[in-house]
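hiii, so i know i said id send this last week but things got crazy w the move. better late than never?? heres the sequnce for the chain we talked about at the cafe, plus the structure i predicted for it. fair warning i was half asleep when i ran it
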Amino acid sequence: MTLPSASASLWRNRTFLAVWSAGTISIFGSLITRTALPFAAILILDAGPLEISAIRGGEEVAALIVGLFAGAWVDRLRRRPIMIAADLGRAILLGSIPVAFVAHALGMTQLVLVAFFAAVLTTVFDVADRSYLPTVVRREQLVAANSALTASGSVAEFTSFGIGGFLITLFSAPIAILVDAVSFVVSAVLLGSIRRPEPPTKPVHRREPVLREIRDGLRIVARSPVLRALALAHGGTHILWGVFGTSYLLYANKELGLDPASIGVIAALGGVGSLLGSVAAPALVRRLGVGRTILGGMLLFALGNLLIPLAPAHALLLGAAFLVAQQLIGDSGGTVYEIVETSLVQSSVDNRVIGRVNATFFTFTTLMTLAGVVIGGVIAELAGLRAAFAFGLLGAVLSIVVIWLSPVRHIRDTTMTAGPALPGDEAPLTE
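okay and structure toks below
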């Protein structure tokens, strides 16, 4: 595989290498927990759809509460120390689960609380991480950098879900979660090794009240036709993600009859789809342009996930084949869309406000994910899991319509647009 020329110099950037390594290791552990945490509830505590919705819903509520404030903090403070603190906090929280399991004290309340507070720290980390990258690489390297991060994350996905499934089967879900706790410690150490100084933050005496800074971030997104459309579309796709997070494991395990190891192997194949998408994204942008690449990725994402409710029950191999196809098609399209959309936002917004813009995206996305979790959980209880997935797919379809009707589909590259200025600025915020 030949790396795109724009990415060749990334591997000589020691700061990017540290960020890339930390992110890859952390993703590896986090993806194990994505499988292990709900399985701890399902297999140990006999949880059903509503209990799993409580765990996933708690994660989304936490992100919703802290999201906008995280953006203001990230724009006020240096981002790398924030990321290190979030890593160490998550290590402590997740480490409490295997400790409680060994002590025979694990309960649903602890799982919900750990999921909630870990989601708080994850939201802060994600906003800081996405805002830190544009200070590490050049603007024209953003697509290549995001592709490299996603590619290694895809390899982590391929290995972690399979390993997670087997760890759960051979040992237990809480022991698998311990791997994630260790991965956060390693990530913190790698980020701590970075010596490159960050750009200066705004002096304390020049800072506006937090609520006013949050309002500015909301206004920047609302006033930009491009950013507004991207935020709405991102939220729509995450309605499906909310349904997926609540219902997929139950659907695969209870309705299709797949065991945890098999589900882990199938989910791992999503890493192959993501890897293909991450490798293809830079070339697709060069050939099709930013807007068409985003639309194409979203279409593949929706079509791939349509295979989930179409998977036949009581036909183990055929049902598994549908889920494999979903992982390969849906994940490859979703990855292309995420890489190009993220790079477009990062290249369009000034470093002064990028934390608040990213936080606005995260918060709206979280709200839509929470809608998917809650409404999808209720639909699953009342009408079945297939009906819940059909509801989620509606959000993905509406997202495609939003992008088609917006200026995004006409954008050729990331230099063609920029976010609107802050109140008082006369020009768009670009560097």
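btw The domain at 13-195+209-410 is CATH 1.20.1250.20 (Growth Hormone; Chain: A;). thought thatd interest u
miss u guys!!
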